[in-house]
Amino acid sequence: MSADLAVISRGLVKRFGAFTAVDGMELDVPYGAIFGFLGANGAGKTTTIRMLCGLLRATSGKASVDGVDVIRNPEGVKARIGYMAQKFALYGDLTVDENIRFFSDVYLVPRKKMSARRDFVLDTTGLRGSEGRLTRTLPVGIKQRLALACALVHEPKVLFLDEPTAGVDPLQRRTFWRLIHKLSDEGTTVFVTTHHLDEAENCHTVLFMQDGRTVGLGSPRELRDAADNGDLVRARVPDPAVLRTSPRVRDITPMGSQWHVRLRNPADAEPLSEELGVPVHRIRPSLEDVFLEACRVEEEARR
Q1: Whole-structure pTM value
Q2: What CA–CA distance (Å, rounded) separates 293 from 171?
């Protein structure tokens, strides 16, 4: 496996009885990349991360993280990664500083380096001045930054963040993504799951996941360009029934006060405008449009 890749998987599968949660996952994630895992709840994102972190045994397939074989040496993987779980997992009865020191011990940070690492994570995550605050009293956004600090304290080359901005307000989300970009610029590989389409725009590469399978992979721009074949228009109509019943329309999606409309044929834009009696405008697909279309195609292929 390539030394340039931080995360690799080949045919990774996880089954729970008759249910397949992850079906043949293939990954090549370079060092320093921000890799986004995008999908609805239940798509298999967390299950994949837990396998890659050595927390859940794969049913079949191969994987390595930072050069360590996940299947053969899961404990070796745990020592080399940072992992921020979807559910806040720090100790509410400890202060910010006590949590950082506790996880420094858990990750076996050498005593001579502990002070420097503590200062680094406090400054990197903007927690300087909050060291004495009791963790359970912190707002959600600051709790998430503390969880990130604890995941970084041992200098991992690969960082797994599972829904890191869940429940966080837009301003804190922006702050959190600035931190992720800073880490990436410094060479840390960041593997992040999200169901926020706007957050996926921050990633170098995005993987769309649906029912345990990959349904799209590429940079946000590559994914949008590949889906831009001229069949997407925007229309404002008071009753979507007129769109659903038109033979020219394949699919519609609400976008604010307007509708994004997938045509059966790109040439149908002008005839549809005449049919509706309102203007329609050709638009480039957003990442949300691309994701929804990829999921629709996957569902149709399974029928």
Answers
A1: 0.88
A2: 29
